[in-house]
């Protein structure tokens, strides 16, 4: 398996999975579960983070407009709001996405447990196989 | 081992830049790259498992400075020129198409060249094989178990043990500390196991082992079990059942209550404060075997301390919390956040005054601790009033030294249990006599 640097949008690190030539059904289930989980997570966080940046930009723009300022000041620097002004946006964003997060949490916990359990099963099977092989070769 | 990545002629266009890769010598010495070239850009990369500093982040591609620096003639330096890892590098095939990989690789590289400030180590930008190197394991497990936090937890438990009014028993003390440390490692590992995608999205936590794929979730769980079970067993059997029960309860509270609650309600902060308050209680019960008022007072002091500490910390992390979906007071109820911090700073003064009333310390304790308690309360008040980044940082950093100092002063003002027995005999003797004995 190989792991890649974090994705720009989702900040998650995709994993390229190794498919061994003699993959047992159990191992295939594990690999597919992990791939699916990865895809789900990637989709969720990419969308979520994109929405965050977009809404943040809109918020900054609307606030600056209300204050009568432009997006970029005289030196060409991007105008930003200070932390206290952004606090309203953060609070708003959190409450808006609360239900989405609850749903994602449930899914994430379920997926995490299933995958770890499958990993345990695979590890156990491999260990038993190795022990059997050892016994044969003594 | 050496990391030497070979080029494979795959027919895919390779980017002709060269990386200077840190080579690890077989006996795992840390090699420090020091480019003492003051005229050009200076890079100090300390290849330490935990920290990686970069003096000056590069705005353009990473490759060029290293190309310049190859002209430098330095001794103790081992450079391995490696070509960038092309995606089809993997000798083992995988399911996704080549095009997809090329896209991912190019996006990874664009990210490399575009991003400017990156505090994480260079290896994060490279593709890494997910194979656990045994020599990495101690460092990885240390980070998984949040070893520094664990050390602080163990020290608060030792403070609880030391404050208990019984003769000091070294074996018991060491066993209790070890048990508490193991329990804390287990709890922290499970916490990280539960929070992988959230940790990857927050700046503070994105370098954790599970996020970086250095360790598999299964291993994390096994490690947690192999720390938690012996830890609690040690506490229950070798110390006493009450301490063991408290330890087990604390693990449960932290992993099954606090961690999920962080994403559900702001009440998580109060639960977390209880989690922080239990270790000194555990230390006390380890020494005495019973839950006295003294234990609860010590727990109360830790409980109150958590609020200025955490609320000040969370003030600067509001953006990350909001994006990550964490329900924290600093995001949803900022006024409450500051009020609670101030309230508990003042409560610390009250609790310190209660200590002599419960016969734990002498009256010198509230007097000596008053300056530091007043100072943190003052910073708490400033935080309440100003509500800005600088006041929150001041409060946070104050809380870091306030607690050890408070516990130290408490220990030096501890009322000796011997002298308490004497007091019982000498009824009606002079009240004005100084009854302060420094050491138990």
UniProtKB/TrEMBL annotation, chain A:
Subcellular location: Mitochondrion inner membrane
Membrane disposition: Peripheral membrane protein
Gene Ontology terms: cellular component: mitochondrial inner membrane
Domain of life, source organism: Eukaryota
A Pfam short name: COA8
Gene Ontology process terms (BP): intrinsic apoptotic signaling pathway
Designated name of the protein: APOP1 protein
InterPro entries, per database record: COA8
Record carries keyword ATP-binding: no
Alphabetic keyword roster: Membrane, Mitochondrion, Mitochondrion inner membrane, Transit peptide
Family classification: Belongs to the COA8 family.
Keyword Plastid: no
TrEMBL record, chain B:
GO BP terms in the entry: cytochrome complex assembly; heme A biosynthetic process
Pfam family, one: UbiA
Native source organism of the sequence: Chloroceryle aenea
Topology with respect to the bilayer: Multi-pass membrane protein
Catalytic activity as recorded in UniProt: heme b + (2E,6E)-farnesyl diphosphate + H2O = Fe(II)-heme o + diphosphate
GO molecular function: protoheme IX farnesyltransferase activity
TM spans (from-to): 242-259, 266-287, 363-383, 395-412
Name under which the protein is recorded: Protoheme IX farnesyltransferase, mitochondrial
Keyword hit for Mitochondrion: yes
Localisation per UniProt entry: Mitochondrion membrane
Catalytic activity, EC: 2.5.1.141
Residues covered by region (Disordered): 89-120
Biased composition (Basic and acidic residues): 97-108
UniProt keyword annotations, A-Z: Heme biosynthesis, Membrane, Mitochondrion, Transferase, Transit peptide, Transmembrane, Transmembrane helix
Family listed: Belongs to the UbiA prenyltransferase family.
InterPro entries linked to this entry: Protohaem_IX_farnesylTrfase, Protohaem_IX_farnesylTrfase_mt, UbiA_prenyltransferase, UbiA_prenylTrfase_CS, UbiA_sf
HAMAP family recorded: CyoE_CtaB (MF_00154)
GO cellular component: mitochondrial membrane
